[in-house]
Fold this protein.
Amino acid sequence: HVQLVESGGGSVQAGGSLNVSCVASGVTRNQYCIGWFRQGPGNEREEVAIIYTYGGSTRYADSVKGRFTISKDNAKNTLYLQMNSLKPEDTAVYYCVRSNSEYSDNDGFGYWGQGTQVTVS
């Protein structure tokens, strides 16, 4: 049974930084794609950053490139998202996700955490 638990959200002023974390339990293999989605007020959920644990390549939304960094610690089963130069439009609930299939996200992300609120004013 896979569980994803986020933490580290909060409130920050524009230009500030936050680091959100996601601890995965029930995950015994590191070949899945994991990452972060977000949903802002009145917006649809959007992909923020993905990391392919097999190989380590990353993908970022254009809106966060150069400001956000996704990383992982396999030994701790923990995923991170370092967010710098935050803007009010980054305000959202941030969700940790895991792909349905190993090695690829072609089948989507079927595992979601409960989310952590990030507010930028």
About this structure: The longest strand covers residues 92-102. Residues 2 and 26 are 5 Å apart (CA to CA). The mean pLDDT is 93.
